[in-house]
Design goal:
heterotrimer, A mainly alpha (about 300), B alpha+beta (about 250), C alpha+beta (about 675), A: about 300 residues, mainly alpha, 2 domains, 3-stranded antiparallel sheet, 10 helices, 6 strands, B: about 250 residues, alpha+beta, Ubiquitin-like (UB roll), Fumarate Reductase Iron-sulfur Protein, Chain B, domain 2, 5-stranded mixed sheet, two-stranded antiparallel sheet, 9 helices, 7 strands
C-alpha cells in the first residue's frame, strides 16, 4: 500500500511536484549566479571558464542530470495533474468568477509551466546544445597588441593546455588555409587539425598542443545582438521570465504547503521569501539579455 | 430591517430533468423580492410562482436554513454559496443584490458530485470518504475512561474544533478549479490527528481516506486556495498541509 | 389500549442498574440473524444505529437528507448537560434529575429522567473518546457553561456548535459501521408507513426520494428516531424537512401519541421579517448568560422605536424595563425557556414590543452591560487598573467576540444590524416538542417491536425541556438505552427467521402509500402545499401557541379541519411519482401535520391547567404565573388514533407517580 501510494496517490503527486519544483528553484539560483557574470564588463574569460567547469565537473554532471530529471518529472507530473483535473469536472460552469477566490498565477500554473518548458527547450537548443554538440562552436579569443603595436588575435588556452595561447592570423579563423600555412611554414612538422571542437592536435604524433575554451560568452552576446533576430530573442526571453515569475509566485510557497509545511510561525516568512524570489530571480535573469542587447 | 425594499431580478438557472438527461440554463424573471428575504426564500418565491402557473418548480437542496447542516449548495454568479464569504447559500440575503441584477444559479460541479435533478447533486462520495476512516475506532459502550483523564491542550482542542466545524457542503470541491476534495478530507484528518484519541489510528486513517478520495474521482489539489476563501466555515489550508504531513508520515 | 410503563421496582437510583442486569441478551452468533430498521440519523438515530451495528445486528438506517450527517440535531448550538461536577459547584446525578423534573413542571416520569441523569456522564466520556472536540480550559480540562433553569455549571459545549460536533461524533461511529458493512445506509429515503404483522412491527415502507420507487424493508424491530414536530407551525427553528410523518404513521398503526400540546417556544430567536419567511433562526440560549432582556418602560418609547424615530441606545437606563430581572430576581435572565418566552409575549401583548413587523413582536437582548463589566475584568487581568471607557468597551467587545463571535456574525448576516453596537432583537419561536410517541421504560411504543427515541418520543422532558438536555436525551437513548432494551426484545425473536416482504401486510401498506401519492398527483388543485401549510401554521401559532384558551382551541380544531378538507380538495402537486419531487414530499408531510395539529389543539383543550410549555390563559395566578392542577392532571395523555378526523381520537391516561420527589410549585423567583 505505502509504496504504490507514494507513486500514485493524489498527495504523492503533490510531493513530487513540490520536491522537483524546489530543486529547480535551487538550480535557478545557481544558474543565475553564473549568468550574472555576463553583466561584468570584460569578463569573457571568467565566464567561459565557468562554462567549461559547468560542462565538465563530475559533481556538476550529477546535479545536471538531476536537473534534467526534475524538469522532465515536473513537466510530466504537471501534464498528468492537468489532465486528471480536467476530468474531475466534466461539465463546466456557465458563469465563473475565479478571481474572487484565487490568484492568476495559481490558476494558470499549467499554461505558465508550458511556456517555461517551451522556453527551456529553445534555450537548450540555442545554448546548451551548441555548447555540447555544435562542431562549429567558436573558441574563445583574445586581442592583444604585439610589440610591434600591431593587433593580434590569440586563442585562449585552458589551464591544462600546453600552450597558454594560440596565435592566429588577422582573419582570426582556424581555417584550412591557416593550418596549411603552418604546415608549410614548419615544413610539415606541425600538421594540425581540430579535434573535439576545442583541441588542436598534431596529426603526426597525436599530441594535443593546445586546448581552448568554447566561447559561450561570444555565442550569448552574438545571440542577443543578432542584427535580425536579436531584439525578438531578447523580448522572447524577457516574456519567458515573466512566465517564470508568475509560475514561481505561486509555485514557491505552494511547494511548502504540499510538503506539509504550513503554520502560523513560518508560513508568512516562506510566502514573503517566495514572492521575493519570484520577482528577483526572473528580473535578474531578464536584465542580462536586455543589457546585452541594448549596450551593443 | 426597516431598510428592506423590493427588487426585481433576472435568474438564469440550470434545469436538468434527471441524472441521465441533458440540462441547460433557463431564464426566469422574478419581481418584488424583498431584500430582507434569504436567497432560498427568493427561490421559494420563484417556485410558488412556477407552481401557480402549473410549471415544475426548481429542485434545490436545503434543510436547516441556518448555515450548519451543509445541505444547501448552489453556485451563484460564479461562486459557491454566492458572493459573500463565510456564508452558506441559506444565510445569503437578497440585500446583497441590486434591482435589475442577473443571477446565474448552477449546481456544484464535480465528477464526484453527479447532478440528480436541477440544482440537486449527489454528495455521497463525502460519506464514503468518511466511512473509509473518518472515525476513532471506539465502541459506544460508554465504559471508556473519564473524559477528563486525557487532558488536551486548549490550542489543540481549538484547532481540532475549527477543523471539525466543516459542514460537508462541498463548496471546496465546487470552487476548486481542479475539483479537489482535499480541504474536506484535510479537515477530517486534522480533527483526529490533533487529538490524542485520534493519534493511534492516524496512519491508516489518512491512507484510507486519501485512497477513497482518489477513487471517487476528485481532482488533485494545486494549492490555489480557492477552497479556503469559499468555505462557509473558514476551514484553513493548514489542514491540507497537515494531511500532507500525516500522509507522508504514514507512507514512509 | 393498555398503557404499561414497565417502570422497574426498587429505589430510584438502583432501578436502571438492576433492570439492566436482568434484561435478556442475544448471543453474538445470533445477532447477525436479526434485522433492525432505524429511521432518522440524528443524535438518537445515528447513535442507536451505530451501537446496534457494532453489537452485530443487521441494521438498516434511513434518512431523508442526502447524508446522515445533516439531521437537524446538527443545529443545536448551546451544549449538552452532564452531571460530572467538574466545576465543583455541587452538581450531582440527583441534582440533574431534580432540575430536569422541575424544569419539566413535574410532568415527566421519575424513573426515565433519573436514568437520563445517570448515563449523562458516560455520554461525555464516550464523546471525548470518539474525538469530539469539546471546549477546554488552558489546563487541558473540559470547560462548562451555565444554562437556563439551573444553578450549576454542567453544560459541556463546543463553541456555538455543540449539536454539530456531537452529531458528527455519532455520524463517525455510524460511518465506521457502514464501512464495516454492519449498517446499510439509505440516504434520501423517507419512511411512509409502518408494517405490522401479528401485532408486531415487522418493517417499513419507504420511498426512494431520487427515483420515487416505493420499497419494502422488513426487520425484527423498528426504531423511530425522526425528531420533533415543530414544523406543524410552518415557522419554527426546525429544519425545512423536519416532519412528524414517521412518528405519525406509527401512531396511525396503533401507537399512542403522548402530550402533543407540550411545545417549547424558545425565547431567543430572530423575529419574523415578512410573509416570505420560511423559517426562524435561533440565537443560542447561552447568550442569556451575557445578555439582558428588556423593553422600554414607556409605551411611547416603544412606539417611537417601531416607527424608526428612536434608537434603543437612546433609551436611558431608567427607562428600560428588564422584565425578567424584575419578575424573577433569583434566576433573572436565566429562567427556563417557557417562562422567558411567556414574559416576552406578555410585554408585547401589552404594547411594549419593539419590532416593526405586523405584530410588533420583538424584545431587546442587550450586551452593553456585559461588554462593560467583562471589559473591566479583562483590563484588570491585564494589569490595567485604571482603564478608560473606550479601553473597557474595546476589551469587552473582544471578550464577547471570543465567546459568541459566530452567533453575532450570524445575527448580522440575517438582520444587517451589528449586535456589538445595538441590542439584538429577539422573539420567541417554536423550537422543540416535548410530546411525541408514547413509549414505556424500554422506549418501546405501544406496538411491540417499535421503539421510539429522541425528540420523537415523549419520555423525559415533561411539559418543558431545559436547555442542553435534548442532546443528552438523544445520545442517552441511542447509545445507552436502546442497545439493552432492543436486545431484550429481540431475545425472543432469534427463532423467527428472515421476515419476508411478500407478506400481505407489506402489500397492503405499499398500496396505501401508492394510493395516497397518486391521489395527490392527480388532484389537479390550484394551491401549493405551502399555501395550506402556512395557513395551518398561522392557526397553530395564534391559537395553539404560547398562550391558549378554550375558545381559541375550539376554533383551532374547527379551522384545522376545514384547512384539511380544502387541502385534499384543492392542493396542486406538480411532477410525477417516479422522480425527485420535493412538492410531493411536502404534501405527504403536511397531510400528517394537518392531523397532528388538530390533535395538539384537542390535547391542549383537555388539559385544564397550565404547565411548562402549555399555558392556558384561564389557569394563571395574579402575577401571570402558571397554575398547575396536580390533582386532576398529573398524567401523561396518550391518544389513540381513530381515523383521519382527529377529533375522534381517544384519550388514555398514564398516571404519573412521584415517589421520590416532592411536587412543588415551580418557582424561579
Amino acid at each position: 500500500m505505502a509504496k504504490s501510494a507514494l507513486l500514485k496517490s493524489s498527495i504523492a503527486k503533490k510531493y513530487w511536484m513540490a520536491l522537483t519544483g524546489l530543486f529547480l528553484c535551487l538550480f535557478l539560483a545557481g544558474h543565475l549566479a553564473g549568468n550574472l557574470q555576463l553583466l561584468v564588463p570584460n569578463n569573457a574569460l571568467n565566464f567561459n571558464q565557468y562554462a567549461l567547469f559547468m560542462t565538465t565537473n563530475p559533481a556538476v554532471k550529477i546535479l545536471s542530470y538531476l536537473t534534467y530529471i526534475s524538469i522532465l518529472f515536473h513537466a510530466i507530473d504537471g501534464f498528468l495533474l492537468t489532465y486528471q483535473n480536467a476530468k474531475a469536472r466534466p461539465i463546466g460552469y456557465a458563469k465563473t468568477n475565479p478571481s474572487a477566490n484565487s490568484s492568476f498565477s495559481s490558476r494558470n500554473m499549467a499554461v505558465l509551466g508550458t511556456i517555461v518548458l517551451i522556453f527551456i527547450v529553445t534555450h537548450m537548443v540555442n545554448f546548451w546544445a551548441k555548447m555540447h554538440y555544435d562542431k562549429n562552436m567558436p573558441l574563445a579569443q583574445k586581442e592583444t597588441l604585439a610589440q610591434t603595436g600591431k593587433k593580434q588575435i590569440q586563442l585562449v588556452g585552458i589551464k591544462d593546455s600546453q600552450m597558454p595561447f594560440f596565435q592566429l592570423d588577422e582573419s582570426g579563423k582556424l581555417s584550412k588555409e591557416f593550418f596549411e600555412n603552418i604546415k608549410t611554414q614548419t615544413q610539415g612538422q606541425y600538421d594540425l587539425e581540430i579535434q573535439d571542437v576545442t583541441k588542436i592536435v598534431n596529426k603526426k604524433d597525436g599530441e594535443v598542443i593546445f586546448q581552448g575554451y568554447k566561447d559561450l560568452y561570444k555565442l550569448t552576446i552574438d545571440f542577443f545582438r543578432d542584427a535580425k533576430y536579436g531584439l525578438i530573442f531578447t523580448i522572447g526571453y524577457v516574456l519567458a521570465m515573466f512566465a517564470l515569475g508568475f509560475h514561481l509566485w505561486h509555485g514557491f510557497s505552494s511547494a511548502f504547503q504540499s510538503l506539509g509545511l504550513n503554520g502560523p510561525k513560518y508560513t508568512p516568512a516562506i510566502k514573503f521569501f517566495g514572492k521575493a524570489f519570484s520577482v528577483v530571480v526572473p528580473l535578474l535573469f531578464a536584465i542580462i539579455p536586455l543589457y546585452i542587447h541594448f549596450t551593443k | 430591517m426597516s431598510t428592506a425594499k423590493n427588487i426585481n431580478i433576472n435568474l438564469k438557472i440550470w434545469r436538468q430533468k434527471n441524472a441521465k438527461e441533458k440540462g441547460g440554463i433557463v431564464d426566469y424573471k422574478l419581481d418584488n423580492v424583498s431584500t430582507a428575504s434569504s436567497f432560498l426564500e427568493m427561490l421559494d418565491q420563484l417556485n410558488e410562482q412556477l407552481i401557480n402557473s402549473k410549471q415544475e418548480p426548481v429542485a434545490f437542496d436545503h434543510d436547516c436554513r441556518e448555515g450548519i447542516c451543509g445541505m444547501c449548495s448552489l453556485y451563484i454568479n460564479g461562486r459557491a454559496h454566492g458572493p459573500e464569504t463565510g456564508t452558506t447559500t441559506c444565510q445569503l440575503h437578497m440585500r446583497k443584490f441590486k434591482d435589475g441584477d442577473t443571477i446565474y444559479i448552477e449546481p456544484f460541479r464535480s465528477k464526484a458530485f453527479p447532478v440528480v435533478k436541477d440544482l440537486v447533486v449527489d454528495r455521497s462520495s463525502f460519506d464514503r470518504i468518511q466511512q473509509a476512516g473518518g472515525f476513532v475506532s471506539v465502541n459506544t459502550s460508554g465504559n471508556t475512561i473519564d473524559a477528563n483523564s486525557i487532558p488536551v491542550p486548549k490550542d489543540d482542542a481549538d484547532k481540532s474544533f475549527m477543523a471539525a466545524a466543516c459542514i460537508g457542503c462541498g463548496a471546496c470541491v465546487a470552487s476548486c478549479k481542479n475539483g479537489s476534495a482535499m480541504l474536506f478530507v484535510g479537515a477530517k484528518v486534522s480533527q483526529y490527528a490533533l487529538l490524542p484519541q485520534g493519534k493511534v489510528e492516524a496512519a491508516t486513517r489518512v491512507q484510507n481516506m486519501v485512497r477513497q478520495m482518489d477513487e471517487e474521482g476528485f481532482g488533485n489539489c494545486t494549492n490555489t486556495g480557492a477552497c479556503e476563501v469559499e468555505c462557509p466555515k473558514g476551514i484553513s489550508l493548514e489542514n491540507i498541509a497537515r494531511m500532507n504531513r500525516e500522509f507522508l508520515k504514514a507512507s514512509l | 389500549m393498555k398503557l404499561d410503563s414497565k417502570i422497574p421496582e426498587g429505589p430510584l437510583n438502583k432501578k436502571w442498574t438492576d433492570y439492566k442486569d436482568h434484561l435478556k441478551l442475544v448471543a453474538p452468533n445470533n445477532r447477525p440473524k436479526l434485522d433492525i430498521i432505524v429511521v432518522g440519523t440524528g443524535l438518537a438515530g445515528a447513535s442507536a444505529a451505530a451501537s446496534l451495528g457494532e453489537m452485530g445486528y443487521n441494521v438498516k438506517a434511513f434518512c431523508f437528507q442526502d447524508s446522515p450527517r445533516r439531521a437537524h440535531s446538527i443545529a443545536a448550538q448551546g451544549g449538552i448537560n452532564a452531571a460530572k461536577n467538574y466545576q465543583n459547584d455541587g452538581d450531582s446525578i440527583y441534582r440533574l434529575f431534580y432540575d430536569t423534573i422541575k424544569g419539566g413542571d413535574y410532568r415527566a416520569r421519575e424513573a426515565n429522567v433519573h436514568r437520563l441523569a445517570e448515563v449523562s456522564g458516560n455520554i461525555i466520556d464516550q464523546c471525548v473518546a470518539q474525538g469530539v472536540p469539546f471546549a477546554r480550559e488552558y489546563g487541558g480540562m473540559l470547560d462548562n457553561r451555565s444554562f437556563g433553569g439551573v444553578q450549576v455549571q454542567r453544560t459541556f459545549y463546543a463553541a456555538g456548535q455543540t449539536g454539530q460536533q456531537l452529531l458528527l461524533g455519532a455520524y463517525s461511529s455510524l460511518s465506521r459501521q457502514i464501512g464495516l458493512g454492519r449498517v446499510k445506509m439509505f440516504n434520501r429515503h423517507e419512511m411512509l408507513d409502518l408494517v405490522k404483522i401479528d401485532g408486531k412491527a415487522r418493517g417499513i415502507i419507504a420511498r426512494n426520494l431520487i427515483t420515487g420507487e416505493i420499497e419494502r424493508h422488513s426487520a425484527h424491530a423498528v426504531v423511530i428516531a425522526s425528531g420533533g414536530y415543530g414544523n406543524v407551525y410552518f415557522l419554527s427553528t426546525n429544519a425545512m424537512g423536519s416532519n412528524v410523518s414517521a412518528g405519525w404513521k406509527v401512531h396511525k398503526r396503533g401507537a399512542a401519541f403522548s402530550n402533543p400540546c407540550y411545545v417549547q417556544i424558545h425565547p431567543t430567536c430572530i423575529p419574523v421579517h415578512g410573509t416570505n419567511q420560511s423559517k426562524l433562526t435561533l440565537m443560542s440560549e447561552s447568550l442569556r448568560n451575557s445578555g439582558r432582556i428588556w423593553v422600554p418602560k414607556k409605551k411611547e418609547d416603544a412606539e417611537a422605536i417601531r416607527a424608526g424615530k428612536l434608537k434603543p441606545t437612546q433609551i436611558a437606563e431608567e427607562d428600560r424595563d428588564y422584565y425578567l430581572e424584575r419578575r424573577y430576581p433569583a434566576f433573572g435572565n436565566l429562567v427556563p425557556r417557557d417562562v422567558a418566552s411567556r414574559a416576552a409575549k406578555e410585554r408585547c401583548d401589552e404594547g411594549y414590543g419593539i419590532e416593526a413587523n405586523d405584530t410588533n413582536e420583538g424584545v431587546y437582548l442587550d450586551f452593553s452591560s456585559e461588554i462593560k463589566s467583562k471589559g473591566k475584568e479583562v483590563a484588570y487581568a491585564h494589569g490595567n487598573h485604571n482603564p478608560s471607557e473606550e479601553e473597557i468597551i474595546k476589551l469587552g467587545k473582544e471578550w464577547i467576540e471570543e465567546k459568541y463571535g459566530n452567533l453575532f456574525e450570524m445575527y448580522e448576516k440575517i438582520t444587517d444590524e451589528n449586535p456589538y453596537e445595538t441590542p439584538m432583537k429577539i422573539y420567541p419561536a417554536v423550537h422543540y416538542t416535548m410530546g411525541g410517541v408514547w413509549v414505556d421504560y424500554n422506549l418501546q411504543s405501544s406496538i411491540p417491536g417499535c421503539f421510539v427515541a429522541g425528540e420523537a418520543n415523549f419520555s423525559d422532558h415533561g411539559a418543558n425541556r431545559l436547555g442542553a438536555s435534548a442532546l443528552m436525551q438523544g445520545l442517552a437513548d441511542g447509545y445507552f438505552v436502546l442497545p439493552y432494551t432492543v436486545s431484550n426484545y429481540l431475545a425472543d425473536e432469534i427463532r423467527t427467521g428472515k421476515i419476508s416482504t411478500d407478506a400481505p401486510e407489506f402489500a397492503e401498506a405499499e398500496k396505501n402509500v401508492k394510493d395516497s401519492i397518486d391521489k395527490f398527483l392527480n388532484n389537479n388543485g390550484t394551491k401549493s402545499v405551502d399555501y395550506f401549510h402556512k395557513r395551518l401554521g398561522l392557526v397553530m401559532w395564534n391559537k395553539v401557541g404560547m398562550a391558549r384558551n378554550e375558545k381559541g382551541l375550539k376554533e383551532a380544531i374547527e379551522e384545522i379541519g376545514q384547512i384539511r378538507d380544502e387541502f385534499y380538495k384543492d392542493v396542486f402537486v406538480p411532477g410525477s411519482a417516479e422522480e425527485l419531487n420535493p412538492e410531493l414530499e411536502k404534501a405527504l408531510r403536511v397531510a400528517d401535520f394537518l392531523e397532528l395539529g388538530q390533535l395538539m389543539a384537542m390535547d391542549a383543550l383537555q388539559r385544564n391547567e397550565s404547565c411548562g410549555g402549555h399555558f392556558r390563559e384561564e389557569y394563571q395566578d395574579a402575577e401571570g404565573e402558571t397554575l398547575r392542577d396536580d390533582e386532576n392532571f398529573s398524567f401523561v395523555s396518550a391518544w389513540e388514533y381513530k381515523g383521519q378526523d382527529t377529533t375522534k381520537a381517544e384519550l388514555h391516561k398514564e398516571d404519573l407517580k412521584y415517589e421520590f420527589i416532592k411536587i412543588a410549585a415551580r418557582n424561579y423567583k
